[in-house]
Design goal:
There is one protein chain. This protein is an alpha/beta fold and 123 residues long. It has one domain: Cupredoxins -  blue copper proteins (Immunoglobulin-like, Sandwich), CATH 2.60.40. It has one helix and nine strands; from the N terminus they run αβββββββββ. The chain has a four-stranded mixed sheet with strand order 2-1-4-7, with no helix packed on it.
């Protein structure tokens, strides 16, 4: 009986993790916390644009699918993730309390200029 309970709890945790990672609409999962998965390559983010509610906690799972180092930077929020080729990095920030648009970019030399940009929209 105890084994079945452990198995059920493990399954419940796995399903919850999958559902929380599947937030559509560019990573906005409502007023609660949100998780968004972003891939970085030469020289783009997929998705390039994400949204959040004012004051929402947002976890970014950033995977570098490119062949050189990439970063995921929201300068106005003092948020930065760095990943080597084939590696991933995760971090959480709190969206500003007022609506607005904030630039996302890769701060590796020349990458922003090559078009590796996106935006965070707080609405």
């Amino acid at each position: 009986m105890f084994r079945k309970l452990i198995l059920f709890v493990g399954l419940l945790v796995a399903v919850t993790a999958v559902l929380s990672a599947c937030g559509g609409g560019g990573g906005n999962a409502g007023a609660g916390a949100a998780t968004v998965s972003v891939e970085g390559s030469e020289f783009a983010y997929t998705p390039a644009d994400i949204t959040a509610k004012p004051g929402q906690k947002v976890t970014v799972n950033f995977k570098n699918v490119g062949t050189v180092e990439h970063t995921f930077v929201i300068k106005d929020l003092n948020f930065k993730l760095t990943a080597q080729p084939g590696q991933s990095a995760s971090g959480t920030f709190t969206a500003p309390s007022t609506p607005g648009t904030f630039q996302i970019h890769c701060d590796v030399a020349g990458h922003t200029e090559a078009g590796m940009v996106g935006k965070l929209t707080v609405q």
